[in-house]
What does this fold into?
Amino acid sequence: MQKQISDRVKKMISSERYFHTLGVKEMAVRLSERYGCDTEKAAVAALLHDCARDMPNKLLLQLAERFGILVDDVLKKQAVLLHGPVGAELSRKIFNINDKEILKAIAVHTTGDADMSKLDKIVYIADYIEPRRSFPGVERLRDAAFRDLDKAVLLALNNTIKYVIKKEWLLHPKTVLARNFLLMQNTE
It folds into this structure.
């Protein structure tokens, strides 16, 4: 199944994004082995996570409407964030993926969300730290990801929030929910 998905995804996205996707798959499998998560589900979710990423914003908005995806004001202005939920629907419709865990991991891999599953966290952080990523602090995050998954996701969310604020972009509420949920869960 992975080979067929990989071949089809390769035709849907740029070659640069495809190599990123392979890196995310590699990291997601390693993390799923580390944390006792289903490696097949992690690989499939990773291969499909960016299947809608290279679509123009207008198309993402049209597909979101067609698929019945709730589009809030932030998503209207930053439609690129829809590539996760739209990608999940495309995974269901085009790739016949019906596993709710895989679909949710694809849907929330960009913004995060409250009460993320282990698979959600693995795909989220694998996307952030895949081997081709290079930014200040990425090695620290890679180390953290293999020591404490929640701490790594929290660090990534904090970095994302700081970056979005620095750029003066809109911050999606699900990112704040994800961060606050992890903080509350780990302080009880």
In short: The radius of gyration is 15 Å. The mean pLDDT is 97.
